[in-house]
Design brief:
The chain is an alpha/beta fold and 193 residues long. It has 2 domains: 134 residues, Glutaredoxin (3-Layer(aba) Sandwich), CATH 3.40.30.10; 31 residues, no CATH class. 32% of the residues lie in helices and 19% in strands.
């Protein structure tokens, strides 16, 4: 599973919502990216997407050519996404429709909203719910300055080895093993229920 600490693996075959053939999202050294997996029908996705627009509007001159905010919608059609972003006037983030891309599996996106921050060297430094990043604007500035970010979802969380019950905290669990358990449940136990 690709997550914090891993190099970004190019997302392939996403479709620009304003037309054009599928494209690959290739990271260029020196850029900081926020990839926002979202959907038009997802109420919790709307505020983070509006915030993406606000940040880019506010910092347009500072971040030009250095910061990319990329929305990847999991909606059923690109037309739905295009109408939604047009009605909201979200014109600064780059908008793509997942289409036939395997990016949700590639990055184990099991729900939306789900975002990833990629640093100037192409390393994933955060993956998770956007609410877990208190100040994305500061995160962008820190990453552009070559600083590390810490906290939940970064792999840089300061956590105790055990909680009060004596169990390892969630940050110590093996994500690949957890996903395998979920997939096994979905294919065997889930249908039986």
């Amino acid at each position: 599973m690709l997550g914090p600490g891993c190099q970004y693996d190019t997302i392939k075959k996403v479709v620009p919502v304003n037309g054009g053939d599928p494209v690959d999202l290739v990271h260029k050294e020196g850029e900081v990216w926020l990839i926002d997996f979202w959907a038009t029908w997802c109420p919790p996705c709307q505020k983070p997407m509006a915030h993406n627009e606000e940040m880019l509007k506010k910092r347009e001159n500072d971040w030009a050519g250095k910061v990319r905010i990329i929305g990847v919608s999991i909606d059923s059609s690109k037309e739905t996404v295009a109408k939604h972003v047009e009605s909201k006037d979200w014109k600064r983030p780059e908008h793509y429709w997942r289409g036939e891309s395997n990016c949700s599996d590639q990055y184990a996106v099991r729900g939306v909203p789900n975002v990833m921050l990629v640093d100037t060297k192409g390393k994933i430094v955060f993956k998770g719910h956007p609410a877990n990043r208190e100040n994305l604007e500061q995160d962008f500035d820190d990453l552009l300055a070559g600083k590390e970010i810490t906290g939940e979802g970064t792999g840089q969380t300061a956590a105790k080895e055990e909680d009060e019950s004596g169990s390892a905290p969630a940050s110590k669990l093996d994500p690949a093993a957890c996903l395998a358990t979920i997939d096994e449940f979905a294919s065997t136990v889930g249908p039986a229920l």
